[in-house]
């Protein structure tokens, strides 16, 4: 039976989730903004340092099922508390490794990735599912996960400002202490107060996803979603470095990131609203074309005007591809297996991110520019847009050829 909670308690826990998502953006934001400083400190070049970022994005995909299992076993809030502790250990630990790039790579790429996965989408989804009434779940999940977007808007300019004045070790240490002490203790208390016990019947439900190997719709979604991951990873890891190489003023960089973050908020909400009214395949194609246009602007239009135009286009597409891919996943495969299917899609998303992270670094180290990488990203998103056309009639086809789903006893 679903546990009953007061409205005040529900709102309070959702605010806690929002704050965690807000702060969790620091794990990626600090690496992004201090990327050049870190590469200089460890002395291995950008390609060598990007290995940590590549491992990070791959590990997030690989550990997401583990985080889901852990959330089921011990509860989402306990999982988030564990993630906060590990995040603090990672941020403090990397300041103590000297110039050992391998130790930094293992700490950030493995433990840092687990920490981020344990504080974001998977456990927060389970938290909302167990805490909120059915008709309010979508709004509640949007509210909580928007913490990451607002963190991008608010914290990215802060990191850029600090990067001009303070070395990376003090900043990593300060943020690490916030995760390790006050946030972890607060989450531990909330987890004890609101245990959110798992549904004992959930473990009895078993569904196979082997049919996906024969489902062309899944492969279209997955390959398209890989381009989404690739472009997002370039933004996360290489965008600030690209702007720095272009000689863009830090004030323009900061305002560009904030503008991108604002449009990211609008993108997710707008995509959700449009998906209830228009064909999802056409919408997905349009969002991927927006992504293509953003990459082309970044490639061809330097300076403040091009920066702001890029931020508008990329921000407008940022969560649209994620929301519509998940909407397709849920519409095509139904509630019985959507979690497993989306988990696999997210893994492919992270593989695309891994590829773009490493190729971007290799491109710069060999050619002192990101031009070839950006051309590749533009090509990939165009192909994703064309593939999305195949999905225009997929919803109708799904009703006639829905995959077999085992029923719970």
UniProtKB/TrEMBL annotation:
Keywords: Membrane, Transmembrane, Transmembrane helix. The chain crosses the membrane at residues 7-27, 47-70, 77-97, 103-127, 139-160, 172-191, 218-243, 255-275, 282-302, 308-334, 341-360, 372-392. Gene3D superfamilies: MFS general substrate transporter like domains (1.20.1250.20). InterPro entries: MFS, MFS_dom, MFS_trans_sf, Proton-linked_MCT. Residues 10-396 form the Major facilitator superfamily (MFS) profile domain. It comes from the Bacteria. GO terms for molecular function: transmembrane transporter activity. It holds the Pfam family MFS_1. This is MFS transporter.
